[in-house]
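P.,

For your records, the input lines for the assembly:
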Amino acid sequence: MITITEPKIEKYLMKLSREADRHILEMERIAKQRDFPIVDRLVGRLLFVLTKLKNPKLIVELGSGFGYSAYWFARALEKGRVVLIDTLQDNIDYAKKTFQQARLAHKAEFRVGNAIERAKDYNNIDILFIDIDKHQYLEAVQKLLANLNDNALIIADNSLWHGRVVGKKRDRDTVGIRKFNEYLFSHRDFFTTVLPLRDGVLVAYKLS
Amino acid sequence: MITITEPKIEKYLMKLSREADRHILEMERIAKQRDFPIVDRLVGRLLFVLTKLKNPKLIVELGSGFGYSAYWFARALEKGRVVLIDTLQDNIDYAKKTFQQARLAHKAEFRVGNAIERAKDYNNIDILFIDIDKHQYLEAVQKLLANLNDNALIIADNSLWHGRVVGKKRDRDTVGIRKFNEYLFSHRDFFTTVLPLRDGVLVAYKLS
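Structure tokens returned:
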């Protein structure tokens, strides 16, 4: 396991990134308490900026957990909506409750089930956010290519997989992430970059 | 001095970021040979993605060096132009030659002089890129606030200043970068994040 970004730097950035929204703070507290994996606040802020720049009509999330990343998307949305998908009813129920309390529910749609299958119900996806099992990333993007809008953005969490991408590990998650990265970096229809925030955030811009 | 991102991760990302453009490769070679500071290829790729998302009419660079970052901006531009400003005539001459050879000169304007002063000639700036002396960052953004367009993007290189921002150093460059970061993170008109790529890239989105 490799430390991707120097912890002192992360601490400095967290200190700069003050937050007053009580729902964000509560979700961060719960995540810590239950050791539930969420993209952290620094990644959340990146999602906010990317959403402002893209101004999307439709965001589809594969693997929403209890709604932390979706909350950042919804916060930044001007007119569009975000579709949350998770396999666990409990997660989606929690997200729905939070969104209702924060008066963001009108910007969201809540789905339970297999993320890739449910996502096929949507066309002209402007932002596809991927945070499911790591060996399924490549399959997810390949199966949903036709559902993307022109100039869509693919954003994938854990694209450096705790640094395992650079080692010799051959487990299916590490291999899956490596293949996913290589696929998008070498695909002629995409321009791809990975930002070494937290566990690595891949951002791929569809060129046509 | 702190290593911001684990070098093995940077190496992995560089390997994924293959490049065929001979002008990019030549500028990277020259920078290495002369030990001339440029944003590297990973930051260049980030600038490309941000430019595609923003689709700006006008980009103004403060501190263009010999044109490496401007080249990435120009490559991504659909219809707008990028203004390069540097204090050194030699740098701007080199950039101009490169842009002409690459048939990108029609997307660029070349200026020699004090970056902040020259930049005041422009209004409705969609992307302001800052890479001048570090103690001047805060002054630059304060003096040019009125020249920014609605929803402009400020992008600043070296916003982690080799990790010195987290130490006890009190030299004017380190203090300057700290103040600049704090100013934009706490400004109510901006939503700000720093991406720990290379030496730190600050990205601030103007909310109105």
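Two observations worth noting. Chain A is about 40% helix and 20% strand. Chain A has a mean pLDDT of 97.

Regards
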